[in-house]
Amino acid sequence: MLKTRNFSVLPNQFMSQYDNVVAVILGGGAGSRLFPLTHERSKPAVPLGGTYRLIDVPVSNCINSQITQIFVLTQYNSASLNRHISRTYRFSSFSTGFVEVLAAEQTKDNPEWFQGTADAVRQMLPHLRDWRVDTLLILSGDHLYRMDYRTFLKRHFETKADLTISVIPCREDEASEFGLLKTESDGSIVEFKEKPKGADLEAMRVDTTAFGLTSAEAQSRPFLASMGIYVFNYDRLVDLLKTDNSWVDFGREIIPAAIRKYSVQAHLFKDYWEDIGTIRAFYEANLDLASPLPKFNFFDTTAPIYTRSRYLPPSKLHDCDIDNSMVSEGCILNGVKARGSIIGLRSRIDKGVDIENSIIMGSDFFESITEIRGNVESDLPHIGIGQNTVIRRAIIDKNVRIGKNVRLVNRDNIENYDHESRAYYIRDGIIIVPKNAVIPDGTDI
């Protein structure tokens, strides 16, 4: 993990140009679209790919881009996120690098919690005073992508922009879900509209061949969507944030004001990028990781995704039939059939279990043999999945206890449902068993 690379030594070229760059990762709001996965944790702390957490993606992108002064802003359920970051990202004492969580705090000057993305940055400005910041890189904590931010910064500096926005070409059927931009031929942004519809959407069409797309690509993706990733000249951003304290959102207020007043440029990103802020997007992005040719590849040694070193034993698989799946460390699988699934850390899955197109997040700890025997005496399933259970199209959160002969298959094809005891939920037809829940033997959903 972090011990594999020396982060205290940076190339002279980087130090001379980028040593006053600070990254700010926005942890988002309550994460209601990812509920119940965000019931006990903040959005950036949601597990990803069996081993990682969402926050590991932007932090790793920063480290791989040699940007090591990183703040993470959050205000909801930040305890697990703080714990993960403090255990994972420890830089050399000879380096100025850090990853620090800044939770919303009430002061005399700011008695309110974060009111929006821009307000979150406004409230953390006092924490930047000692860092001689001249450039602020603002990122989101719930996106899946791999980017070298030095390319992004290079365009920002070469164009002498006050603000540069990373954009991605998108199709007409998805364009209305994003903030869209119009540009001149040199890439300068002249207009921004947040989630336009109808005639307003049509007015935001641009010729994306100017950004290097082929004619066919430009025809299928004629809109430029903001990725919610920005590079600001620090002084310009402070000026904008102080102009009107009622401006609390980058998309609705700060960006339009910046376009009117300053030089704003677009930086095109053409690789894989996914906003995984909803249950469906989270589910599909995770399962794609287990496909033979995933859109996002964790097996990239040139730009690895870092996470906490847990020192777990290798997984044990006995008499299993597993295909198109990922199995994390510390698992014990006995007679398990799995297809197109993610099996997370310390998963204990018993004989005859059949899993398909599902995410099993695993456990935060191992139960001892004594504890498992005590569970049997108390009629309590062990942490994991009991014998002869069938799971289809589901997300099983951490530390869940699923008994024997359980069927989690959504047999009635329900789209959305909240169980009265909160033992499970259904979102977009996907069954979700929340953290620490217990599903008794023989349950049929």
Brief overview, please?
The protein is of the alpha/beta class and 445 residues long. Helix content is 23%, strand content 26%.
Q: What key attributes describe this structure?
A:
about 450 residues; alpha/beta; Spore Coat Polysaccharide Biosynthesis Protein SpsA, Chain A; UDP N-Acetylglucosamine Acyltransferase, domain 1; 2 domains; 9-stranded mixed beta sheet; 7-stranded mixed beta sheet; 31 strands; about 25% strand; globular; disordered N terminus
Describe this structure in words.
- The protein has 445 residues and is α/β, with parallel strands linked by helices.
- The protein folds into two domains: 2-289, Spore Coat Polysaccharide Biosynthesis Protein SpsA, Chain A; 316-439, 3 Solenoid (UDP N-Acetylglucosamine Acyltransferase, domain 1), CATH 2.160.10.10.
- Helices cover 23% and strands 26% of the residues.
- The chain is built from twelve helices and 31 strands.
- Strands 1, 4, 5, 6, 8, 9, 10, 11 and 12 form a nine-stranded mixed sheet that branches. A seven-stranded mixed sheet has the order 16-19-22-25-30-29-28. A five-stranded parallel sheet has the order 15-18-21-24-27, with no helix packed on it.
- Residues 1-16 have low confidence and may be disordered.
